[in-house]
Amino acid sequence: MELILVRHGETSGNALRQYIGRTDLPLNERGSQQIIELRNRLAPLLTKVTRLSHSPLLRTQQTAELLIPDFDQHSADPRLLELNFGDWEAQTYAELEATAREQLWRWYDDPWTVAPPNGETLQDLDIRLSAWHERIACDASADETLLVVSHGGPIRWWYAKYVLQDPARFHHLHLPPGGFAHVRRTTDGWTLVEGEITAT
Q: Which residues bind substrate (predicted)?
C-alpha cells in the first residue's frame, strides 16, 4: 500500500501565520498555484490513485479537486481535521505571546496533555488519527495507492508516529502548504519514498 499525504495549499491564514484549525478558509491564489504545480510534478503517481480522502474543510477539498479533477470517489473524513486550536483560532504566535504567554508556553512544553482553551491536545489528535490509520490498514489492499489531503498537524503527527516511529519528533518536522510525503508500507513498516517533509 502507498499513501500520498498532501498538505492543502496556502490560505490567507497561512500567509498571516495564524493558527488555523477549524476556520473554513478557501485556498488563496498562491495556494491554488502550489497545488497545480504539485499536480504536474506528481502526474504519473496520481494516475495510480485508487482512493481519495480529505478533511471536511474547503481548503482540502479544493486541493483534492485540483490534484485529480475527475476523481469521483472523494471521501470527507473528520478524523483528518487539523488540531482544534479552540480560543486561539485565527491568532498569531505574536498575539498569543502578548495575551496568553504563560498558557502558550505550557502548551508548547506539554502539548500531549495541555490544550489551547476549548481546543484539543495532541492526545486527542492521536486518538482520531490512530482510528483512521487502523481503518485504512484494514480496508485497503496491498496494491492500492491512497491520496490523503489533510493539514500540517495531522500529517506531521502521523509521519512522526508511523514512519519515524518517534512521536516526540513531531515538533521538529516541517511540511509547507502544498507539500507532500509519498510513503510505502512494507513488511518493516512505513518508509518515505519521496517528499517535502523535513526535520529541523
A: 7-14, 59
Which residue ranges make up each domain of the chain? 2-84+120-199
Instruction: Supply the DSSP symbol for 90.
Output: T
**CATH fourth-level superfamily of 2-84+120-199:** Phosphoglycerate mutase-like (3.40.50.1240)
Q: In Å, what is the CA distance from 157 to each residue of 37, 108, 116, 143, 195?
A: 25, 15, 17, 25, 15
Q: Phi and psi for 110 in degrees, rounded to 5?
A: -145, 65
Provide the 8-state DSSP code for 197: -
pLDDT value at 137 more than 90: no
Query: Residue 31's pLDDT is what?
Result: 99
Is residue 182 annotated as part of the catalytic site, yes or no?
A: no
Q: Does the annotation mark 8 as catalytic?
A: yes
| Distance between CA atoms of residues 59 and 95, nearest Å | 24
Quote the CA–CA distance of 176 and 166 in Å, as a whole number: 21
Alpha helix positions (H), the chain? 12-15, 29-41, 43-46, 58-67, 93-99, 101-109, 122-139, 152-158
Residue positions counted in the chain: 200
What pLDDT digit, counting tens, does each position of 72-116 carry? 888 999 999 999 999 999 999 999 999 999 999 999 999 999 999
Residues with Cβ within 8 Å of 33's Cβ and at least 6 positions away in sequence, in order, are 9
Active-site residue identified among 2, 82, 120, 151: 82
Q: Which of 8, 54, 151, 182 is catalytic?
A: 8
